[in-house]
Write a structure and sequence with these properties.
9-stranded mixed beta sheet, 4-stranded mixed beta sheet, 10 helices, 13 strands, binds adenosine-5'-diphosphate, binds 1,6-di-O-phosphono-beta-D-fructofuranose, EC 2.7.1.144
């Protein structure tokens, strides 16, 4: 079974605005509400690609209830811990001439709730996959992912981490199966800006030396670089298309990569399916469907086990 964990899930309120002006009343042209959060997005795309997963994490208040109900309606299994106070956040995504985002703080997660999550994770079995994705609320210590990975050590559970900064750095010593920083996040980890592919490969190799098994660096419209455990560096250019909403493109790439790898055991195909899923999501208004993803595959869908 694949489990995704989203500490700070959301409702994503996506608005389209013509001529956005700060300091003025702006009227939307279109608005939609989706269940958000990186682990949740991974679960939705896995479900779209026919793989079962269970979305774990924390929910609170009426927004948390709607988020959970929506995920179930999209075919995902969910098992969120209900927090006693507050509301799950509403993240605002503004699609104007440029894309802007306002991501909320989220409810407080007390120690008791955290212990309940750890107890759930004890039930995972060898061969299971655990995806830890997204930020954590400020009220939690930055070693939370590290604590989970410590508990998962020697259990036979493969852990995927899509996070930034300290949260990511601290888990490397536990050998996550996959990490997926984007090129900016990769540079930030080392306090630098990366301009060339050679630089990106060099810094991704550092992450492998620090413990990551596979490093997938996404580069938005420039595609992705995969440094796999077999020592090979693979590069993939994305298909061409018009960006409609790139929120969730990174999460879709993680889900597509996992689906490709689990279905075929082939890193090349995993990278291809990950890229198709990331780009397909960027080219539609929300997370892409299977049909939308298959459109961008370089080989027949059956070769990816779809
Ligand atoms: N503008 C785009 N055009 C084509 N593909 C895109 C675009 N933006 C994202 N993608 C696809 O989605 C993947 C992940 O996007 P990226 O923006 O790098 O991730 P994140 O959302 O984590 O920052 C890319 O590697 C690419 O395949
Ligand atoms: O946990 P974070 O880093 O605050 O991000 C949460 C936001 O990220 C998303 O999961 C999208 O992530 P990406 O665009 O990076 O793939 C949104 O659904 C959500 O609002």
């Amino acid at each position: 079974m694949i489990y995704t964990v989203t500490f700070n899930p959301s409702l994503d309120y996506v608005v389209q605005i013509d001529n956005m002006e700060l300091g003025q009343i702006n009227r939307t042209k279109k608005e939609n509400i989706y269940p958000g959060g990186k682990g949740n997005n991974v679960s939705v795309i896995l479900s779209n690609l026919g793989l079962e997963s269970r979305a774990l994490g924390f929910k609170a208040g009426f927004t948390g209830k709607v988020m959970d109900d929506m995920l179930r309606a999209y075919g995902c299994q969910t098992d969120f811990i209900l927090l006693p106070e507050g509301n799950s956040r509403i993240n605002v995504k503004i699609k104007a001439d440029t894309e802007s985002e306002i991501n909320g703080q989220g409810p407080v997660i007390e120690k008791e709730a955290l212990i309940r999550l750890y107890a759930k994770l004890q039930e995972l079995e060898p061969g299971d996959i655990l995806v830890l994705a997204g930020s954590i609320p400020d009220t939690l210590p930055e070693n939370v992912y590290e604590q989970i990975m410590e508990r998962m050590e020697h259990t036979g559970v493969h852990v995927v981490v899509d996070a930034t900064g300290e949260l990511l750095k601290r888990v490397l010593k536990y050998h996550p199966f996959l990490i997926k920083p984007n090129n900016h996040e990769l540079g930030d980890l080392f306090g630098t800006t990366l301009y060339t592919e050679e630089e990106i490969i060099m810094y991704a190799q550092k992450l492998q030396k620090m413990g990551a098994v596979n490093v997938l660096v996404s580069m938005a419209e420039k595609g992705a670089l995969l440094l796999a455990e077999d020592g090979q560096v693979r590069k993939m250019r994305p298909p061409k298309g018009t960006v409609v909403n790139s929120v969730g493109a990174g999460d879709s790439m993680v889900a597509g990569f996992l689906a490709g790898y689990l279905n075929t055991g082939d890193y090349e195909k995993a990278l291809e399916l990950g890229t198709a899923a990331g780009s397909a999501t960027a080219f539609v208004s929300w997370l892409a469907s299977k049909e939308e993803i298959v459109r961008y595959l370089v080989r027949p869908a059956i070769e990816y086990g779809l």
